[in-house]
Design a protein that fits this description.
With 199 residues, the chain is of the alpha/beta class. Helix content is 35%, strand content 25%.
């Protein structure tokens, strides 16, 4: 459906995330991936969704001078927000183990933001999902890290992987948002953009 709405546009995904690529494909969008180096740093006074909003917009900045009238750029960021602190991607097994031990037996928020940017305007959406882990054993944590190497995932886990099957007791909100992309809200935004363009 979306592919027909944007057949005259060039959709650009500014992300190397296989999950985001999968979601755009499943939505039927024709797109290309373009990557730019961005240092994912944000002001220390930002909290919660302010961080993911800031980073989603920041990732769009290197593209701004080269966008044409046909281009629609999609950039996104996901954070795990736990005890008033953002958990990013772990640098190594030790850091991943520390994060998962902290999340074990507790609830946290997963916040994803998406910026949709054209030459003339920018739109931003975000979504929050509450995730609750059971008490994870050290053996379970070590097995997951050794076999799934979650070093490209905020909070050191992927809900769609083994740790999600055995460890997540409850979620409140969008499952796909926890995977890193608020698909339903993104679809609604793209439909609004399409309607506005066709007026």
């Amino acid at each position: 459906m979306l592919s027909n709405q944007f057949k005259d546009k060039q959709i650009i995904l500014g992300s190397a995330s296989p999950r985001r690529k999968f979601f755009l494909e499943e939505l039927g969008l024709d797109f290309e991936i373009r990557l730019k180096e961005v240092e994912e740093q944000y002001p220390e006074d930002l909290k919660g969704r302010e961080i993911s909003d800031y980073l989603a917009r920041l990732k769009a900045e290197p593209f701004l001078n080269e966008l044409t009238d046909k281009d629609i750029l999609i950039t996104s960021d996901t954070i795990v927000w736990f005890k008033n602190k953002a958990l990013g991607k772990p640098e190594n097994s030790k850091e991943a183990r520390k994060m998962l031990r902290a999340l074990s037996g507790n609830s946290h928020e997963v916040i994803s933001s998406v910026a949709v940017t054209t030459k003339k305007e920018s739109h931003l959406i975000h979504d929050t999902t509450l995730v609750t882990f059971k008490q994870l054993s050290d053996r379970e944590i070590d097995y997951y890290i050794s076999n799934f190497k979650p070093f490209d995932k905020a909070g050191s886990y992927g809900i769609q992987e083994w740790i999600g099957y055995i460890g997540i007791k409850r979620i409140e909100g969008s499952y796909f948002n926890v995977m890193g992309f608020p698909v339903q809200k993104f679809y609604e935004l793209m439909m609004k953009i399409s309607l506005a363009n066709n007026r």
